[in-house]
């Protein structure tokens, strides 16, 4: 197959082959894995599932009532037991599960045994606060060990968690708490960001003025900032943990019980609660983590993604811990106190596997190679990329200046909805091409199809779809199965539509081109144009708004907004500033528009649809595409002459 060195590639000059010595020791070295997983994907996934700890094995691998799937039907397990308890029997109990460094430089090491104790205690704290199996717990925390502990404690007692990224605003938090009807919120007083304490508890307080479901708030003391504690509602983590019992029997969960909900932006204003279940999700993330990162017992694995995103869930918590890995967790920013902080950490902790995002790599490129060059990165043996298409220049820079031309790069395409990686090279097998996520993972049926759902020919572009169910797939949109069907399963008959466009090259390699729907990918984070638009029109000065993603050198895409103002309101630089902070307040800093352009009218079709395509051309300074359906050409003139 393609791992043969004599295989001819149509684009030979761009091909990077796995190093022979790496391949010889790789976890996956037999290319026939693709064939047999392809012939019997249910059998393949069942074999992967058997590597987990089950109280009871399943009666049936897959129950598929399209588009609703159940995997490992009748199987019983607990995700926390798989991530923690099962490593306690042998020597691994004294292995570091988490090595943490905070932004100020504080360090914590938790062995698997330590993790077991802390998780069990916190599970008891949650129970004591009234959390029972099935109750949702919202976690709004920075990257500290207590966030991992809180997630695993929820999993232990069968309480689905819902993480909300710490950069989200009080209002975004409120909406997510209300949609999930969370009973308890776990947060911190504040978090460290470039030497400053950024309040989190304050946002929780603001959110909770409009959340009736929340009964208790647990506050981890992180920065020591002064916070308000509501009597009868708010408790300190450190206080509760003091006397919590160390034994907590895990709940025996059904394979299909919800493990967590995670909100993600879609094409309409309201974020979707993506539902992941226990058995299939854990199977998917554990298997892919082991195979993609070629995990060995003595690796130190670092995933820079925040725990509030799916990458943090799957490849910082569940996948690596289920595999008994040593996970490095870092709270801070890459440029604080210096621009070599990441490389300093790799040198200091001898990190071997490093997983980050293209947006970070482009930033490192901009800062220059002297920062990594000054550090010993010889411990690294594999690099990963996730979150957005990686441009070939960034890939080559990563390969040369971080991997020092020794480390394979796994460019991993996947989504919150897919739960685990769907398209990526296997590091010991797959020759890579800079910028291509290469090919579907074993047992996964990804294809690129045209408007009619027919596979595109080699060299052509189309829509990225998934044709068969997979264990870690989302099961539904929380409380909205219709939206699940409409969003993902209605575009093409019997196929899951990813929302991404892709090209398949002459060698069959997949090149993901980015979103083809109304989702903007800013620094690897998804933002719905509709969310930003509705935030803008809520502002008293704005009559109408259209938001697009335009190409941005560092962020991949940036939010660009076009607005028309209400009668009598004049455009001014202060208003632009005010609108930007209004969006940040409504959604979070990530969604803050890069620029806001004021127009007297937005370009629309004769049927009244805003022509975002033209706005994109304007924002990117391109020659305008087809304008024949435009209702009033004068509108464009004004926008162009800005
Ligand atoms: C894991 C994650 C999903 C969207 C996805 C796509 C983009 C992610 C990518 C990639 C090209 C990669 N994306 N990884 N595009 N190459 N390796 O990022 O999940 O936050 O849900 O975003 O991100 O557009 O559809 P999520």
From TrEMBL:
Organism: Desulforamulus profundi
Protein name in the entry: Acetyl-coenzyme A synthetase
Record's GO cellular component terms: cytosol
Protein family per UniProt: Belongs to the ATP-dependent AMP-binding enzyme family.
The Acetyl-coenzyme A synthetase N-terminal domain, residue ranges: 32-83
Keywords recorded for this protein, A-Z: Acetylation, ATP-binding, Ligase, Magnesium, Metal-binding, Nucleotide-binding
Record GO biological process: acetyl-CoA biosynthetic process from acetate
NCBIfam families, sorted: Ac_CoA_lig_AcsA, PRK00174.1
Residues annotated for Mg(2+) binding in this entry: 537, 539, 542
GO MF, one annotated term: ATP binding
Free-text description of this protein's post-translational modifications in UniProt: Acetylated. Deacetylation by the SIR2-homolog deacetylase activates the enzyme.
Cofactor dependence: Mg(2+)
A Pfam family that the UniProt record links to this protein: AMP-binding
Residues recorded as bearing N6-acetyllysine in the entry: 609
